[in-house]
Amino acid sequence: MSDHRLALFRAMVRARVLEDRLASLYLSGGIPGGSVFLSRGQEAFSAAAAMQLRPGDVYAPLIRDQAGRLVRGETPLDAIRVHLGRTTGVTRGRDGNIHRGFPRQGDLAMISHLGSTIGTVAGWLMGLRQLGKAGAPGDLAVGLASIGDGGMNTGALHEGLNIAAVEKLPFVLCVTDNQLSYSTFSDRTYACRSLVERAAGYGLRGVAIDGTDPDACWAACRDAVARARAGEGPQMIVAKLLRLAGHGMHDDASYVPAELKSRFADGVQTYEVVLRKDGVLDEAAAQALWDEYRSETAAALAQAQAEPSPDPAQEPWTALSTRALA
Ligand SMILES: Cc1ncc(C[n+]2csc(CCOP(=O)(O)OP(=O)(O)O)c2C)c(N)n1
Fold this sequence. Notes:
Blueprint: H1 3-27, H2 43-50, E1 58-60, H3 66-71, H4 76-83, H5 116-130, E2 143-148, H6 155-166, E3 171-177, E4 180-181, E5 184-185, H7 197-202, E6 205-210, H8 214-230, E7 235-240, H9 258-262, H10 267-277, H11 283-305
Parallel strand pairs: 1-2, 2-3, 3-7, 6-7
Antiparallel strand pairs: 4-5
The site of thiamine diphosphate has 16 residues, from strand 4.
């Protein structure tokens, strides 16, 4: 019964260890370009969502989906290579560190213009349908996209979500309401009580959950993906939590009141306590797990640091999407 809980915890720890290392690298000047965006507090929802997907599905993560990316097959080495701007990374050191993905396997590179991925995923699903590759109801290929409370207010999101609902696409929208859009609190970005109230306006099913509860995240994601796969049309999950970091490492989040912060514990630590209490893992197993991922990250970092950065005099500056470079 607890297999998925342990797998979920493992995914959360793996992301946390990797991100903590990237954060310290940033502070020591080891990140050559761009910031480092942490998912602290959001690991459970991200991992739980991605864990419901399978090959043939489409996944559109955002900056706080390191956990989901790892679940889908990105390795710490892949992530570190991109953050260090190495030629061995998927963007060949020619981009910052967020527009990365594996589109051939359905893992889309993030589009910075928030909301634009929604129509992209909807279009992908319509393409599968038109090509006769969507699968049969009960076994449909699913598209799952992340969005934040800020991104929920973009025109692009509205257009994409509306067409997904009209076409009854097997689409799952994972909304992480972390109460902040950069430094703007959500009482300045939306006026409804919960973003889940918008689901009815699109004519789709929505559920609101406590995003700090990994088991609630798991159950909601499992049900939403199953319903989408079954042919019930788009699903929306709104997970309420608090971003436990700045927007990126360049932002100390000093605008978040201490009282608010004090109400949100670290979800990775609290889930470990819960799992130990429930007998899913003991102290030694938990320690071994953290050690395993620390070693994995250290080895990946050592390897990436020994690899080259692009030489601007030699690098062909055609677009990465050029057939010769793809
Ligand atoms: C269409 C669009 N407008 C503005 C921005 C600039 N921008 C980047 S991140 C961000 C805040 C996003 O907040 P939210 O969607 O809540 O996600 P979070 O950073 O909290 O995970 C903004 C406004 C953008 N990327 N895209």
